[in-house]
Inverse folding.
């Protein structure tokens, strides 16, 4: 049996790690290499590292830094941010990255997912989908680099990325990002029903119970940021990850 | 450990050589890359990595001119070789993923996962899974329960000879997670991305006599 994955999701801004709330107000939380060393010791299942500025500024991924991170990483590493071409993805794989997450470029040209999958296999292609509620309370596809809603219904886009070659979906509820109020389980449930590839649910986790709840909805994995970089009500910076025994206990009810 | 022979990673343009090299160095091995026939001939110990499609992998091996040197090294000189993921699958005779003949070093074939009966199972089989060690072998400790490894694959190996099977795992069906036939080792999982369990496999491989 596959164990569900619990994935720290780290945000890069320049050379530093930050944490956002609802994709805004990035706060510095530390050095990425140091964080990865701690996550190695904690034996985390997998890591997601997203550069939150690369696409917004039209920059390429920071290859040198990513190479350093991949060299330190004893677990699978997914990188996202600024990947616009299959050649850029190939360069990332050559640096030791297992998966690339693609959002901005795929919203413009969904064929990119297939071109990367052709080279590296679909298991290496993660479609990153952000969903945000609008002022009418409707969940809508969000283009985070532009900071604007996208016209396509998110459900349609989720189906399209799978047809285009994505092997996994990273689904983030923007309104829950950094808020630690629990995941958007209705969103997870609806997305799982439309997915034939593994779904990573993200946004809002405040503890193992929230993670277990999302897994019970059918997510293959849960990614979380604030939960693993903050401690306590005052959001003191502390890189943590639950011990394997605690995870086993929290997830045992799933089997 | 540096007194031991360096480990030559076969570099044929398929898969994640950087991660394998990083982890081998981390466990104290000397690492070289073997991308030419001469470099394969000179190797004392080999790793055949690989991620991606079966036919593409075989084609790249052929195009790099490495088929024959690899056969000579592995079958005649008995150079130890460790196949990882697609590398393990290429050691088999054939795969349902493609039409190309495999290296055929091990009597085994590669099949697609059949998970049609269970909607909760997805393909690829991606994530952490626990393996059952079937026999004490050079690379895996039989005594240790709950060894977990990171897997990413849509096809899986079935061996003709039960005696070749070192470890199995389950994903809808039981499949071969590790095999060994004399000097030929294969692991379906990624030891380079599997924390201390993977480090242990690579450390033991680095320590094998050659």
């Amino acid at each position: 049996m596959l164990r569900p994955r619990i994935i720290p999701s780290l945000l890069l801004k320049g050379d530093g790690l930050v944490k956002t709330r609802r994709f805004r107000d990035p706060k510095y939380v530390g050095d990425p290499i140091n964080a990865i060393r701690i996550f190695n010791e904690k034996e985390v299942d997998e890591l997601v590292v997203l550069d939150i500025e690369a696409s917004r500024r039209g920059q390429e991924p920071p290859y040198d830094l990513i190479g350093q991170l991949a060299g330190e990483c004893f677990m699978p590493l997914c990188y996202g941010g600024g990947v616009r071409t299959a050649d850029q993805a190939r360069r990332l794989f050559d640096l030791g990255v297992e998966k690339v997450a693609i959002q901005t470029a795929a919203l413009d040209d969904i064929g990119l997912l297939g071109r990367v999958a052709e080279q590296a296999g679909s298991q290496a292609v993660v479609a990153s989908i952000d969903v945000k509620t609008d002022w009418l309370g409707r969940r809508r596809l969000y283009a985070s680099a532009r900071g604007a809603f996208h016209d396509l219904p998110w459900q349609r886009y989720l189906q399209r990325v799978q047809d285009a070659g994505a092997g996994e979906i990273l689904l983030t509820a923007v309104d829950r990002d950094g808020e630690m109020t629990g995941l958007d389980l209705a969103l997870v449930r609806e997305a799982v029903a439309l997915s034939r590839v593994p779904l990573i649910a993200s946004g809002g986790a405040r503890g193992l119970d929230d993670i277990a709840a999302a897994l019970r909805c059918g997510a293959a994995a849960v990614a979380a940021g604030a939960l693993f970089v903050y401690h306590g009500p005052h959001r003191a910076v502390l890189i943590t990850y639950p011990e394997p025994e605690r995870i086993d206990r929290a997830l045992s009810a799933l089997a | 450990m540096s007194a031991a022979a360096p480990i030559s990673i076969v570099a044929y343009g398929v898969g994640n050589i950087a991660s394998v090299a990083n982890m081998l160095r981390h466990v104290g091995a000397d690492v070289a890359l073997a991308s030419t026939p001469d470099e394969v001939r000179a190797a004392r110990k080999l790793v055949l990595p690989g991620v991606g499609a079966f036919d593409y992998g075989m084609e790249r091996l052929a195009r790099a001119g490495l088929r024959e040197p690899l056969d000579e090294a592995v079958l005649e000189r008995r150079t130890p070789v460790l196949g990882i993921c697609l590398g393990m699958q290429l050691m088999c005779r054939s795969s349902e993923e493609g039409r190309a003949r495999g290296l055929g070093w091990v009597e085994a074939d590669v099949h697609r996962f059949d998970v049609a009966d269970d909607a909760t199972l997805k393909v690829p089989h991606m994530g952490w899974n626990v393996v059952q060690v079937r026999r004490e072998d050079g690379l895996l400790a039989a005594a240790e329960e709950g060894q977990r490894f990171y897997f990413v694959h849509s096809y899986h190996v079935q061996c003709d000879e039960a005696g070749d099977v070192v470890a199995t795992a389950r994903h809808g069906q039981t499949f071969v997670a590790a095999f060994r036939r004399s000097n030929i080792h294969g692991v379906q999982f990624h030891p380079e991305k599997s924390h201390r369990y993977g480090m242990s496999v690579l450390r033991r491989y680095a320590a094998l006599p050659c």
About this structure: The helical segments of chain B are 17-26, 37-42, 54-63, 67-76, 86-90, 195-207.
